[in-house]
Amino acid sequence: MPDSGLWRVFLASCAASLCNIAFGFDVGVVSGLLTDMATSLDLTQFEKEAATSGLNFVAGFGAVLMSGNLLDRLGRKLTILLASVTLIAGAAMVASSYSFPQLLVGRALQGLGSGASWCACSVYITEIAPLQYRGSLVSLADISINFGILLGYGVDFGVQEAFLDHPDLHWRVSMALAALLPLLFCVVSPFLPETPRWLVSKGRDAEALEVLRKYSDDRSSSATPEEVLAGIKAAAAADGNATPSWSSSLCPSSPHDVKMVVIALLLGPAQQITGTEAILYYAPTILSSLSRFSRFYANLSIGASKLFGELFAAYFVDSAGRRLLMSVFNFFLCVAVFGIALAQFYHAHIIITVVCLCLVMLTFSLGPGPFTFVVVNEIIPLSRRARVVAASVFLNRMTSGTVALTFLSVKTAIGVPSTFFLYGGLGLVGTVFYIFFIPNTTGVSLEQASGGTDNNGSSDAANAKDDIEAGREHPEPDASTALLPKGSNVAHIQQY
User: Do the Cβ atoms of 310 and 21 come closer than 8 Å?
Assistant: First the structure.
């Protein structure tokens, strides 16, 4: 049986991911209700695209305006709570819309909440997760999105069956149900801890120690909570306890830090250039030749492939490594996208297209899907983490929104095969980026992965930086000793 502290970390991570489930629910449910919503509100094609991809654009600004500024000021947990309230207000506004402007305001609120919660959730889990399970636990943030997509498909189908003769009620009820998950987070949030790293950054060491004691994985760690706290404090002191400005966060003085920030910022859009999210939004359009039931089961298969891939990858990420999984499966993702293009070009049987769509989602979820923001959170130190992660989420959502917003127009202009050939070609560029530029963060503490040093400028941490940049595995026992104050008797800090 896992240690009780690890169970607490797992449950806290699941709770923090509730708003991400709501985001996935939105993606899944909108793909099924878009036609009824457009008919009910008399939406043009541009308005339909704005109602779907507009969520991503505003989510990017939500990450920057809300999470980027509030994560350091208010804390990780309270930021997720504020995002939840915003999501609830957005769902209520959309469900009661009778005009496009009102719908747009509601979607904007949902976008702000989604972007803020997505950013805050990944930072929150990164900072409470033990080293041995950090990759798996942080990938929960993306797994929850895929679970939400499946949930959205199922709920939309059920609501549509219930209101088959009332299409106006179909989409309104479906969108109103999106408020339940953020509402659940509001209920459970008083029982969740704040992250020990944020508490240390605010000088609240006693509270941080209490969290570490309660949420420690005692069976697999050789470090006591006191020793872990000492390592966090030493790394925070070396990094600088003051929260830097946006400009100093995104433009640090150290060449190594500049490189890590650039990689983190590019990882955001690299995840989305293959068009996977547009495929999810417009799968019903791509599969329009199928009957309603067949289209539902096809969508369900696509969503299940995405979820299964992430569950499988989460199991292996802390042993196989982030870079290997992202590089290999992003390449196979491109192959699957080219398969869709060829199937459309040669007018292959629709089953071939469905199989390729499932393979796209499977390969995406085995690589760049769950691990992009695992790496982004790991390579950025505590003082700059909130703002850099927010900026990366912003670029990720801008890219996703652009792809989704232009999908129908590009499809009309150059045809379906050429559209997917374009996505596949861009994906190959991303694969090269993953192979040559993603640092290896597997098996090192969070402070070590982000380049922490001790108060005395120990060269051990600096050497670890070079190892990480070069992609060499850094021995786990040495990963955290560089974070300890001089004279410490602690041999290893392996847990966090």
Answer: no
Distance (Å, whole) CA 253 – CA 257: 7
Distance CA 214, CA 447 (A): 21
d(CA 368, CA 434): 9
Residues in the chain: 496
**Number of H-type helices and E-type strands within the chain:** 24, 0
Structure letter (DSSP) for residue 194:
P
Written as six digits, the tokens of 19 are 């708003």
CA-to-CA distance for 359 and 377, rounded, in angstroms?
A: 28
Q: Among all chains, which residue has been given the structure tokens 């509730």?
A: 18
Largest CA distance in the chain: 75
pTM of the shown model: 0.76
CA distance 29 to 32: 5
- How far apart, in whole angstroms, are the C-alpha atoms of residue 387 and residue 390? 5
Cα(104)–Cα(114) distance, rounded to whole angstroms? 15
Token pair listed for 459: 């060269």
d(CA 20, CA 369): 14
| Model confidence pLDDT, tens digit, residues 227-249 | 888 888 887 777 665 667 788 88
What proportion of the chain, given as a percentage, has pLDDT over 70? 84
Angle between helices 100-128 and 140-162 (to 10 degrees): 140
